[in-house]
Design brief:
Blueprint (H helix, E strand, L loop, with lengths): L3 E2 L38 E6 L6 E4 L4 E4 L14 E4 L9 H11 L2 E4 L1 H7 L8 E3 L5 E4 L2 E6 L11 E5 L5 E4 L8 H9 L3 E5 L8 H11 L3 E5 L4 H13 L5 E2 L7 E5 L5
Parallel strand pairs: 4-5, 5-6, 6-7, 11-12, 12-13, 13-14
Antiparallel strand pairs: 1-15, 2-3, 2-15, 3-4, 8-9, 9-10, 10-11
Helix pairs in contact: 3-4, 4-5
């Protein structure tokens, strides 16, 4: 299966959409999180990394999701189907922000047990879903599954496996360090796109991020949750040295990336 990134010539591109580049380049200072101008089609997904942590906006052909929004304004989200929360730490859960976004968009909140309890007094019960490893939520043809997370400082952390309408699978690893069961997740679900933690979190480094990619064997590996640009680049160097088949994409904050299984004609 060959993966590609839409080029700047495609008609749905806007000024914040980038071509699929593996070369180091300057990170943008753009706080805009909306990816509404991206138009992923069949077998495509779009994503944007919007802070230094695990904040990612994801768009499938029919749904828009945001994971762990912090350090962003609520008005950045004009339309949203769900917010996913991996754990309760300050760089992943901003309770006042979640309340504002939910009130603005009426989106669903899917959260780990600790975060769900913290949000239970401010989010309508019908909009709040507690997720534990192994549980799934359906949003029409999009499936969101909670998986295990190896992040001991958090109380009840989870990771998320998102499957699009067309079977494109995205694995968001939160702050997780590698753990043996990641190999099982990779073998069973065969994720296409994986976000790999490479810094900031206790024990996280480019090497542990590389180990995550080795266990999960994605087609595209994206380093994130990084203290520096150097950590992102070191992750890719290590992955290349390991002769991994994964394509390494170093994301720029604030840019939309669209990846898919088939090139447009």
């Amino acid at each position: 299966m060959q993966w590609w990134q839409a080029s700047a010539e495609d008609d749905f591109q806007d000024e914040h959409t980038t071509s699929f580049s593996l070369e180091p380049h300057k990170a943008l200072r753009n706080a805009t999180v909306s990816i509404e101008n991206a138009a992923p089609e069949k077998n495509e997904v779009a994503f944007k990394w919007f802070n230094y942590y695990a904040g990612v906006a994801i768009k499938t052909p029919s749904k828009t999701l945001v994971i762990d929004p912090v350090d962003v304004k609520a008005k950045s989200f004009a339309s949203l189907d769900a917010i996913l929360i991996t754990h309760e730490h300050y760089d992943h859960l901003d309770e006042p922000l979640i309340r504002k976004i939910q009130d603005r968009t009426q989106c669903r909140i899917l959260a780990d047990p600790t975060s769900a309890r913290r949000l239970s007094n401010s989010i309508p019960a019908e909009k709040l879903l507690e997720m534990e490893p192994g549980t799934e939520a359906k949003m029409e043809d999009v499936t969101i599954r909670a998986e295990q997370c190896n992040h001991p400082p958090a109380s009840t952390p989870i990771t998320f496996l998102i499957t699009s309408e067309d079977g494109v699978k995205i694995f968001h690893t939160a702050d997780s360090s590698p753990f043996p069961e990641m190999k099982d997740i990779g073998d069973k679900h065969k994720p296409d796109l994986v976000f790999c933690t490479v810094g900031i979190a206790p024990g996280a480094s480019p090497r542990t991020g590389m180990e995550i990619a080795k266990l999960l064997k994605p087609k595209v590996a994206v380093p994130y949750h990084a203290a520096s640009r150097e950590d992102l680049e070191e992750f890719c160097r290590m992955l290349k040295k390991e002769k991994s088949k994964a394509t390494c994409l170093i994301p720029e904050q604030g840019r939309v990336y669209i990846v898919g299984k088939e090139r447009r004609t």
